[in-house]
Amino acid sequence: MKIEGLKVLVTGGAGFIGSHLVDRLVDASCQVIVLDNLSTGKLENIAHHLTPNGKVRLVKADIRNVELVNQLVKDCQVVFHEAAVVGVKRYVENPIDVIEVNVLGTHNILEAARKHDVERLILASTSEVYGKNIKAPLSEGDDRVLGPTYIDRWCYSTSKALDEHLVIGYHRRYGLKPVILRYFNVYGPRQECSAYGGVVSRFIAQALTGRDLTVFGDGKQTRCFTYIEDIVEGTIRAAEVDEAIGKILNLGSTNETKIIDLAHLVIKLAGVEGKVKPIYIPYEKFYGRWYEDLPRRVPDVSEASKILGFSSKTNLVEGLRETIEWYKRNFNRLSEITL
Ligand SMILES: NC(=O)c1ccc[n+]([C@@H]2O[C@H](COP(=O)([O-])OP(=O)(O)OC[C@H]3O[C@@H](n4cnc5c(N)ncnc54)[C@H](O)[C@@H]3O)[C@@H](O)[C@H]2O)c1
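That is the input. Now the predicted structure with nicotinamide-adenine-dinucleotide docked in place:
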């Protein structure tokens, strides 16, 4: 199936990943409905498409609104389900919202997709599903390893795993045609850079506003940072390639980077060497008591490579340069910064 010219629904389409997806769908002449309550998404992320003859319609509403979700899905051939409560600090501050939005919201989307026979449903899932399994690299069939339920951090992982179970259930029972994508640490322009945002955007915001970069723990923990364009490319292909139906696929870079090295790289690329420095903060001070971290997380992307032809093409320096330049041009976004 080619995405060109189709009618698509993007939940969370005003958010970081969703809005880049919308750009790409508009380029492919799709008619796009964005369903977003603008809780973390921003009008300015998609404002350039909201012109009278534009191909994008924004519906500012909640994915938990059953009737509305039904109406919107009815008109669409493909659903990209990106809306969720995202951000580690939110998981530890508000686990109830995380579970309600991520699980009940997804259930609504799936029910509507089943009723109206959508041709493809893409679920934005996450590497968090693997929990603290330190096997490297992590394949889609690997175990989930989680801490106890009094550690709030795991509520997001659990909510997304429940989404995956629901999606697989709908595929097996009703013949829904879904693809589950596990994104690994996505970064790029438009990502939230407040205390709730990702580490890359937080570091960039700190560097560009002359603040020291706050590194949690000893900074030796690693992540695989994946540039937004590569994620969008993989997400579009997932909608197009029939062999992906019913599959779970990791989408991520395989380049493992220590957080402390990321901090030094951002300082260098932002041109603020000697002006700011990394400072170490205990996890507990930032996230409170109900948090635990994981030392590393590396994806095995051989399935996505085989099925979708996916690879993470943008190297970290290149992606960081693009992102830093964007924040410099959009300095107003740095007002989000809270630490
Ligand atoms: N950014 C990452 O590194 C990453 C990694 C793995 C998975 N993901 C997944 O990708 C998706 C997009 O994440 P993002 O990084 O763009 O975050 P984001 O916060 O920028 O986007 C989420 C969007 O969902 C909207 N939203 C939240 N609750 C809603 C509700 N109840 N009703 C309607 N809209 C609602 C928000 O306003 C926002 O626009 C999420 O499903 C997330 O779990 C992201």
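The longest helix spans residues 95-115.
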